[in-house]
Design brief:
Length: 207
């Protein structure tokens, strides 16, 4: 689900991997139109399209030796999916406007809030790409199914918020923690973070 902390998990995987000293690069596949997403991923040569005054490496090249995180991969167009599956299979990418391919060594981690099996059945996601990215799947449960973590998360988030807002770290009392544990958190960890930010901002000494 949205807001469960997918990127936090991916960054921890990266930090504990053998690629932790190489780049970590992330992109949201839902945030960009098809042509722009393709050029961001694979790069382009000078003159490849109007406004391409200089060549630019894609994120596959930028992440060389490291990790490329594709958030919301379920929103990627079928045409871009086809190019992605080729890059994953051949470990080579071709910039827009180029006739040559470049080798890349990148770990790709993808995330989505969608049920990709259903998206495949509706012909909006390639089955071969689904099986490629499904080779090792991790499900991040929503916060309402991880209530035992809420106290620890609230404490960690309050420390981070206090540092960010230049405020004293509040003492979260039992009544506050119990109220946090009782909430269903439809916005997951993101919603909890926003609530803690407000608590820290308006708190005095303790709550």
């Amino acid at each position: 689900e949205t807001g469960v902390g997918k990127e936090v998990l991916v960054r921890r995987i990266y930090a504990q991997s053998s690629r932790r000293n190489a780049p970590f690069v992330t992109i949201s596949c839902a945030a960009l139109p098809e042509l722009l997403l393709e050029s961001e991923l694979f790069g382009f040569e000078r003159g490849a399209f109007a406004g391409a005054d200089v060549a630019k490496p894609g994120l596959f090249e930028v992440a060389e030796g490291g990790t490329l995180f594709l958030d919301e991969i379920g929103e990627m167009s079928l045409a871009t999916q086809a190019k992605l599956i080729r890059a994953l299979e051949t470990r080579r990418v071709r910039r827009l406007g180029s006739v040559t391919e470049r080798p890349v060594d990148v770990r790709v981690i993808a995330a989505t809030h969608a049920d990709l099996r259903e998206v495949v059945r509706s012909n909006r996601f390639r089955a071969d790409l689904y099986h490629r990215v499904q080779s090792l799947a991790i499900t991040v449960p929503p916060l309402r199914e991880r209530r035992s973590e809420i106290r620890v998360l609230a404490t960690e988030l309050s420390i981070a918020a206090a540092e960010k807002l230049a405020r004293p770290v509040p003492l979260l009392g039992e009544a506050v923690l119990s109220a946090l544990e009782a909430h269903d958190w439809p916005g997951n960890v993101r919603e909890l973070r926003n609530v803690i930010d407000r608590l820290v901002l308006f708190s005095r000494a303790g709550m």
